[in-house]
Design a protein that fits this description.
Helix content: over 70%
Protein name: Phosphate:Na+ symporter
Shape: globular
Subcellular location: Cell membrane
Main location: membrane
Structural class: mainly alpha
Keywords: Cell membrane, Membrane, Transmembrane, Transmembrane helix
Number of strands: 2
Pfam family, one: PhoU
Distance between the termini: 84 Å
Amino acid sequence: MIIISFIVELMGATMLLLFAVRMVRTGIERAFGSSFKRVVTENRNRVSAGATGLVLAIILQSSAAVALLVAGFSATGAISFGVGLSVVLGADLGSALLIQVFSFDLAWLVPVLLAVGGGLFVKSEQRKLRQAGRIILGIAFILISLRYLRETMDPIRDSTFLPVIADYLATDFLTAFIVGALLAFLMHSSVAVILMCVTLVSIGAIPVAAGVSLVLGANLGSAIIPVWLSRGMKNAARRVPVANLAVRGSGALIALYVINKFGLLQYFGSETSAQTLINTHILFNALLLMVLIFAHRLERPFLKFLPDDLPTAEEQSPLYKTTLDEAVLDKPHLAITNLKREVLRMIQLVETMVTPVMDIYTKYDPDRARMVLSQDTFVNTALDDVRRYAATLQNTGLSKQENKRVREITEYAIAVETAGDIVAKRMIPLAKEMYEKGIRFSQDGASEITNMHERTKANLLLASNLLVSDDLESARLLLEEKQEMARLERKSRKRHLKRLSEGVQISFDSSDIHLETVGALRDFNSHIASAAYPLLHRGGQLLETRLIEQDYDDLDVRQR
């Protein structure tokens, strides 16, 4: 019974520690996640990249999280192999320094952290302040979990079985190393494992020799985590995590052998102090930074081990290749044309997303739905490229008119990307909900939605033509279509509510999805139609937010 109670308390303390570490990391990612790509990818020097990785690991409380960030950026070519590996090696040291901070006696700080963090999280309505409260609460929970872990282990340190296990791990350092690696991998947090080892050594539950072997094993386990989590990514993304595993894993094995073979623990601190574990951990990861000198030279062997993937049919299509050419940035008229072509490509990608939507609503196909969602990734990447290209272009001394044009194109790219998000994040989930709940539209409701969908596709083509031709009449027509889509959405709502009042059961079942779908189509069309505003404004065809009244025989456009 005592053993069961001990196991439950130990699991509780460990889970609290894992939860607290995750709480801090998610709070930081939610508050500042959008800045991580800029911080990581702006490095071109390996030393500064290592320093960036060190800081990020302390902030995120996980070197594995930093390695996954780097893997994602490597897949898109936003960061080179040498710089990426430098960031990850710096993150390994940052994670080690974090252990030193949490090893201090900070029990007095817990009530303060709980009061401040709880106040911010519960009372604040500002997003960043709430996330700051989450981060502070997470740090408090880490300190509480370490104290709880210490109190859990205290009663059994003088038991009969613990000294046997501890002595065995102290003499069989390879087993202790493997146990440390497994714990770090299973818990997905080397910080939690090493903090636990430090706590156990500090109360005398296990000897320092066993603790050091466990810590070195945790270094290997920590390097395995990003390799495992990135296993489904392209080879370009996997190279840096695999290289880090090779460097850190081989280094950990060498350190394990040398320390135990030559009795070097006495040089890292007292053979009875938990600080020795921390010193060893920090020194080991600091020595690994020597790899920064030749990090870029490691790319060749790992390129052979993980060669570039063969291009898929999608990647071979011109639709999936950027049109942005860095070589013409000194020629503004060509660069602006490139920007327009890239936004045109984004429109074509969004068209491939929205075209099959009604079919997916009618007969849900998981594979087609996944294909639509995968297209959204290409659209998002294209927008990132447009913003980066536009920012670079605006620093080349453009005229006032050229600057304004670049800004207009970038704003429209944002609108197109938002339209893609409407399909991926609103319409596809609605189609899936219909399928899972066995819901279908009434005949009239389906006809109304199909009509709006067809007009939306036609307006996509009109927006593409407008982007190429800068035709004022097309711009007026596109804006007219925006107003017409808003009218159709209102009309569909009224008809739907009328069907509800008449007791049509199928309309009751599909009510929420019907209304959300027509709203999504209206919003989608509004974003696509926003291309018309800059052109009409330049042509003097806008009075505030209204079209100037004109008569067109072909369009019959008239403002009332």
